[in-house]
Amino acid sequence: MVEFEYVTPSSLEAALQVLGDASHTAMALAGGTRLLIDVRAGVVQPAILVDLRHLDTLEYIRFDDHCVAIGARTTLAQIEMNPLIQRYVPLLAEMASSFGSPLIRTSATLGGNIASFAQVADAVVPLLALDSTLLFQSAGNRRRQQLSAFITDHRRAAAHAHELITEVSVPVLPGNALWFYAKLGNRKANAIPIASVATVITIQSQRIQEARIALGAITPAPLRATHAEAVLLNESLPLRDQTIEHCLAVLATELQDPLDDMVASAGYRVLMGKALLRKALYHLRPVEQGDNKKMREE
Ligand SMILES: Cc1cc2nc3c(=O)[nH]c(=O)nc-3n(C[C@H](O)[C@H](O)[C@H](O)COP(=O)(O)OP(=O)(O)OC[C@H]3O[C@@H](n4cnc5c(N)ncnc54)[C@H](O)[C@@H]3O)c2cc1C
Asked: ipTM above 0.90?
């Protein structure tokens, strides 16, 4: 039987104290949808599980200086249903609606998904395309880091033990943005994805001013396809078939070391990544326009 101590701190500070104590191995427990499976399987052996469930201060979605700020303990179900997210960062709501199953979404948290360091972390893909920033807190310390830097930071596992992700800050999509999100799996619910794509494009005078393309479930970690993005700059809309095919050819060179497992072969994942990006570039969606000021005040 796996044995560990279980604590339920009543404040963030108390949780950070336990996590920061180097005399034992403590791990944060959020929704438990990954950690408890790993504990049971012996993949991790924490001496203490620090349950974050009672920390309401980490559960919020609000406007904060042109960003939507999301507390790390916010569940995927809350993200899926939230009107601010649906209006201002719709690809995040779209991702949440296809995450796991309705049951999993009520437990799984945004912070837990990012911190899992999993090859498949669905929330990371739209958050990368949205250029999101993470707030980390440890006992007596706070720091911010771009999600893109966190993903490629090889020291992150070591730092992880003493720090909590406490907030994810997502820049609001401007009115001249177009977006797309799609995930492909072998079935609709609780499927391990074969590929996912999130795209954000901003337009100035009918030309592409900025392009962000993120892909998940293909390479060992979600990635920003910066070379494929560069192909789209200054191109006019609608995109020419030739430009799209060039963009896809460049993307293929960026999908290094594709995952090859019982869910899908490496070749199939790359093929599906390209297919999803092709679909994205033909079906970019406008940001819903509305009474933004009223919405922000609500
Ligand atoms: C049936 C099923 C379906 C699933 N479907 C999907 C899916 O569609 N897409 C997908 O991406 N994943 C899926 N998962 C995996 C899992 O549900 C997600 O990764 C989930 O978001 C993890 O969040 P959690 O709150 O449950 O984290 P936990 O399991 O509580 O924790 C996971 C890890 O993150 C750490 N952690 C948690 N919160 C924080 C924090 N705030 N700061 C720092 N570290 C923290 C924990 O210590 C642990 O190491 C599925 C799992 C199951 C069992």
From this structure: yes
Element (H, E) at 133: strand 133-138
Whether residue 74 lies inside any domain: the answer is yes
CATH number of the domain enclosing 253: 3.30.390.50
Total structural domains within the chain: 3
**Which ligand 1 atom lies nearest to the CA of residue 110?**
21
For 201-242, the pLDDT digits (tens) are 999 998 999 999 999 999 999 999 999 999 999 999 999 999
- pLDDT band for position 63 (50/70/90)? very high
Length of the chain: 298
Domain boundary among 154, 171, 188: 171
Q: 67: which 2 tokens? A: 């960003």
Three-state secondary structure call for residue 15: helix
CA gap 90, 16 in Å, rounded? 32
Let me know if 163 is exposed, middle or buried by CB neighbors in 10 A (0-12, 13-18, 19+): buried
Instruction: Tell whether 181 and 266 lie within a shared domain.
Output: yes
15 Cα: distance to centroid of ligand 1 (angstroms): 18
Helix (H, G, I), strand (E, B) or coil at 82: coil
What domain range is 130 assigned to?
A: 56-171
Residue with tokens 């997502």: 170
Determine which residue's CA is closest to atom 18 belonging to ligand 1. 113
Say yes or no: 77 and 10 in one domain: no
Neighbours of 228 (CB within 10 A): 25
Domain membership flag for residue 293: no
List CB contacts of 184: < 8 A, sequence separation 6 or more. Answer: 193, 194, 195, 196, 272, 276
Residue 46 to residue 27: CA distance in whole angstroms: 6
Q: What is the Cα–Cα distance from 47 to 180, expressed in whole angstroms?
A: 42
Residues 239 and 135 both lie in one domain: no
Q: Using most ligand atoms within 8 A of CB, pick from 18, 104, 135 the residue to mutate for ligand 1.
A: 104
AA letter at 2: V
Where among 127, 155, 171 does a domain terminate?
A: 171
